[in-house]
Specification:
Blueprint lengths: L1 E7 L2 E7 L5 H8 L18 E4 L2 E4 L5 H4 L3 E3 L1 H4 L6 H8 L9 H14 L5 H7 L11 H11 L4
The structure holds FE2/S2 (inorganic) cluster (2 copies).
The site of one FE2/S2 (inorganic) cluster has 12 residues, from loops.
């Protein structure tokens, strides 16, 4: 076991981990941060997405030891005070059903909007191409983002 100091949602957290533990498990099981979900544990579904220094990554593919010294953001971190405008738009459009994919999609789109506040539909599709949603067919997800950003169709 090794002690790590992880910066999660702007807080420094101390945690003991094995060298082969993945960030997803450490967040959920050792730090009690439950928004990243485990859908496949092999990089296929995007349910475990977190932001690492602002970039969306699959936390099942990142070792916890690799995350030390970086800033980790989860949905808990972007909505601590109140829901983001993106989250409000998703609610307005009933964008999710079971919600399993929601945290990953929210973070992937949050990264996109930081870079492109008015993305095209193609850019939106590309930003969540690695986030699987089994319930919605994606249309209400795209509609919420397009309405929020009034991007180019
Ligand atoms: Fe990480 Fe599916 S759990 S991509
Ligand atoms: Fe169920 Fe997306 S709302 S997987």
């Amino acid at each position: 076991m090794k002690e790590l100091i992880l910066k999660v949602n702007n807080e420094l957290r101390s945690v003991y981990v094995e060298s082969n533990e993945i960030l997803l498990d450490v967040l959920r099981e050792k730090l009690g941060i439950k928004s990243p979900k485990c859908g496949c544990e092999r990089g296929d579904c995007g349910a475990c997405t977190v932001l690492l220094d602002g970039k969306a990554v699959r936390s099942c593919l990142v070792l916890a030891v690799e995350a030390e010294g970086h800033s980790i953001t989860t949905v808990e971190g972007i909505s601590a005070e109140k829901l983001s405008a993106l989250q409000e738009s998703f609610i307005q459009f009933n964008s999710f059903q079971c919600g399993y994919c929601a945290p990953g999609i929210i973070l992937a789109v949050t990264e996109l909007l930081e870079k492109h506040p008015k993305p095209s539909l193609e850019e939106i599709k590309e930003s969540i191409a690695g986030n699987l949603c089994r319930c919605t067919g994606y249309t209400p997800i795209f509609d919420a983002i397009m309405d929020l950003t009034k991007g180019d169709k």
